[in-house]
Structure formats: C-alpha cells, structure tokens
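User: quick one, sequence for these tokens?
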C-alpha cells in the first residue's frame, strides 16, 4: 500500500514538473512579443495618458500638472483646440464613411474575381494586386502626386485623349479627396483581397454543390453561403479599415497638405501640429486620447452590429 502511494505521489510530482516546463517553454516563445508590446505600445499609451494631465511646452520642458484642464479646453466651444480638433474630426469621419465600405466591398469583389480566374494565373494576380502594399507610403504618395499632377500628370493626359479638359485635382475639396481615396485604395486593397481569398478558399465546395442541386442562384449562394462563411474575416477587415481611416495622415500630407484650405486636414494632422508646431504636448496628448476613445466607440458599434446581423 505504501509503495502504491509513493508511486502515485511521484507521478504527481513528475506531472507538475512537466506542466511547469511546458508553460515555461511557451512563455519563452511569446516573451519577445510581450517585451515589444510593452515597450512600443503599452508604455507609450500609458505615458501619453499621463502627459495629457500636464501643461507641457516642448521648448521649455517644464511640465505643470493641471488635471483635466486639457480635456475641458478641448470640449470648450470657441477654444482653439476645440475648433481645430472637431473640424478635422469631421474630415476624418467623412473619409472613414467613404473609405471603409468602399475598401471592404472592392477588396471582396476583387478577391472573388481573382479566385475565379484559371488556377495558373491566380498567383500572378495575387502578386500584382498585393505588390503596392509592400511599398512605403512616401513612394506611393510621390507616384500618385505625379499621376494627379494638373499640368503634366498621366491622368490628365489620358483624359485629354478622350476630349476632357485637364482637371486641377487639388484645387477643389472633391478633387483633393478623390486623390486621397484613390491612392489609399490602390495602396491597401491587396492586403484585404488576400484575406478574403483565403476565407473564400476555406469554404467547402460541397455547400455550393448542394445549393446548385436545390436550384439556388448565384446571388442566393453568395448571400446564404459565402457571406456567412467569411463573416469573421469581413469583421476583421472592417475593424482594421476603420482604425486605418481614423489614423489617416500620410496621404493628405503628401498629396494635398490638408488643402485646399483645411478641407482635407485630418485629425492626426491637427494632433501633430499641436505637438510639434505649437509645441503643446499636453493638449496634443489629450486630443490623441479622445480620438482613441472615439475609435473604440466606433469599433464596438461595428462589432456588435456585424455580429448581430450575422446571427
């Protein structure tokens, strides 16, 4: 009896040691990510929130704790930061309302088309549409600035061939936003397209075969098989596109510089101007925190709406 008890205790000790080694090994695998996440994301977020409670001029480097005054000033009608923040927030919302559905629908449609071509060409089209995503934004902005150039741009040259007069794209808000949206779409559509292609390839062909036997149309198969099956990926694309839309910065800086006037000046531009042009780190941090809260609210609304609609 004693031997049995001792053997059982020995097995328990070995099992505990094995579990500890497994957990320690798993921790070593995720440790680099945890360190990078802490240093480059968590610490800056916490530090930014702390800075928002200070009046801090970057030139004299003498922060003064003022509590919630930066936030109160931000929501005080008539103040400089209130007018700048909410006017540029309106431009950001305008871009997000157009870009998010446009990017989602276009990338899904492109994924369906690429998936429909013969298999020998699928890899080629994937590479072609994904290639712009690996380029830096500065390269993309410079290239499309030349394409949209009113005097010697490729686009106006093509329009003149069909009898349309050259368009000064950056002279009107509509033209300037067209530049930003087209450039952003061309740059980022390939990544979302690949996500949708992978989701489409994971759908069982038996479902489509059974639907065809039942006499389902192409539209019915798309609505009742394809869309429910790719819902998780679609939700991911919508959420990441929303985050990217609210963090829009490089395209308007490179293409329009926020013009004409301030019609394409977005929130990230006003935050960086507040920090590095007016040198007010505290109020800039408060603006960034409020923007993050607004993004979070939009993400929650989209998440619950999409999940409820998907059943």
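Assistant:
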């Amino acid at each position: 009896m004693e031997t049995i008890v001792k053997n059982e205790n020995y097995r328990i000790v070995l099992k505990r040691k094995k579990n500890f080694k497994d957990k320690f090994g798993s921790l070593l695998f995720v440790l680099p990510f945890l360190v990078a996440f802490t240093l480059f994301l968590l610490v800056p977020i916490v530090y930014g929130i702390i800075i928002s409670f200070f009046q801090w001029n970057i030139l004299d480097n003498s922060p003064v704790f003022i509590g919630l005054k930066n936030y109160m000033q931000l929501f005080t009608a008539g103040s400089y930061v209130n007018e700048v923040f909410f006017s540029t927030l309106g431009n950001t919302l305008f871009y997000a309302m157009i870009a998010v559905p446009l990017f989602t629908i276009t990338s899904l449609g492109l994924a369906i088309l690429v998936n429909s071509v013969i298999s020998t060409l699928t890899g080629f089209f994937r590479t072609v549409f994904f290639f712009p995503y690996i380029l830096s934004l500065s390269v993309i902005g410079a290239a499309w600035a030349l394409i949209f150039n009113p005097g010697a741009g490729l686009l106006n040259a093509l329009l003149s061939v069909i009898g349309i007069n050259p368009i000064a794209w950056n002279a009107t808000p509509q033209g300037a936003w067209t530049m930003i949206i087209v450039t952003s779409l061309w740059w980022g559509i390939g990544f979302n397209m690949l996500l949708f292609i992978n989701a489409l390839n994971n759908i069982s062909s038996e479902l489509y075969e059974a639907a065809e036997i039942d006499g389902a149309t192409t539209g019915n198969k798309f609505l009742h098989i394809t869309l429910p099956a790719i819902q998780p990926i679609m939700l991911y694309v919508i959420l990441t596109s929303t985050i990217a839309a609210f963090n829009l910065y490089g395209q308007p800086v490179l293409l329009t510089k926020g013009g004409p006037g301030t019609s394409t000046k977005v929130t990230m531009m006003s935050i960086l101007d507040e920090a590095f042009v007016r040198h007010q780190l505290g109020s800039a941090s408060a603006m960034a925190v409020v923007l993050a809260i607004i993004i979070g609210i939009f993400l929650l609304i989209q998440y619950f709406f999409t999940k409820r609609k998907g059943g």
